[in-house]
Amino acid sequence: MELELLADRFGDKWTLLIGGAVIGALFGAFAQQSRFCLRAAAIEFSRGEVGGKMAVWLIVFSTAIAGTMLLAAFDLFVATEARQLASPQSLSGAALGGLMFGAGMILARGCSSRLLVLSATGNLRALLSGLVFAVVAQASLHGFLSPLREALATPLTTLSIGSNDLLVLSGVSETTAFTLVLIGLAASIGLAMWRKIGIWKTLSSFLVGACIPLAWWFTKSMTGIAFEPVTIESLSFTGPSANTLMLFLSEPGSMIDFDVGLVPGVFLGAFLAALLTGELELQGFEGGGSMRRYLAGAALMGFGGMLAGGCAVGAGVTGASIFALTAWVTLFSIWLAASATDWLVDRKLPERQSRAHLQPQQARPVTIRTTE
């Protein structure tokens, strides 16, 4: 088996890192080409449109679930061995964290994965926001924000309902779920054709979604090869971003795993895709107000993503692909908060400011002074 040969030559940890980097590069390249972005889809939907951005997200989402279910059907992956189903998860953290992440996503003009992809194309706003996201995520995991995160995550967990498996709780069979997912995938492809987003963007969206089951398969396969325990996981960007940040602050070689290969891989893949298509362009902040908005949004995403146990990809696609209840709660909360924040910050507030600017100023009395 090729993975065994790779592990024999480079070792288990470096094989995990290489796998994370390769899968990350594929995700980054095709996410850059497809313009995959939950924020864009949420804004489009909340404004009463079902267009190309929504079509891209739906293709990624449906492909990820369908591919993961196919892996399980062929005994190449066992969903219950994944962290989201193997251990209790926080329902309160999923709801609150999702709300915070959704609001931050609108303020930062992109979720964590989108910021990483944009930074690779020369967007300095996204690069700085991504660094703030990683710092706050690390502070929420092991730093001074961790007590607050734990306090918010404790009140309600899946222990109180007995399971985190949405299919088990709902009584829906895997066959029925798979049929519904295939219908959703077909509908999303039909929407993409209707909106004329193009064959390449449609194919790129499909390949972005395919990276989720590919990562599940890779990490599951490594459990049968590695001598040390391997975490069965797929793509996420909250924890991996924090771990990648700590990589540069730790002893060389002490943090080699799938997560640490993923983030640089996404960056490299997006950079190469933008380079080959002539889309590299340096972009900066437009002013102090814009900078404050981006950084506040990045901080909200960092804490919210860690509290929820996943980001727009980690929970909204990866967790959803194994029907983890908390992931679906997080996804719903992200959509809800993103829609509300877009309405309040980007639609209602500018409208009020425009009205105030256009309103004629009240005439002031003029005093005429005479000299005697």
Spell out the key features of this protein.
372 residues; mainly alpha; 17 helices; globular; disordered C terminus
TL;DR of this structure?
With 372 residues, this protein is mostly helical.
Protein architecture, described:
This protein has 17 helices and no strands. It has 372 residues and is mostly helical. Helix 1 packs across helix 2 and helix 3 crosses helix 17 (325-358). The model is unreliable at 366-372 (pLDDT under 50).
**DSSP strand content:** under 5%
Summarize model confidence as the mean pLDDT. Answer: 91
Instruction: Identify low-pLDDT runs.
Output: 366-372
Number of helical elements: 17
Secondary structure category: mainly alpha
Radius of gyration: 23 Å
List the helices and strands and how they pair.
Layout: H1 2-10, H2 12-34, H3 38-46, H4 52-73, H5 83-86, H6 91-107, H7 112-120, H8 124-141, H9 146-153, H10 166-170, H11 174-194, H12 199-223, H13 238-247, H14 258-276, H15 288-308, H16 314-321, H17 325-358
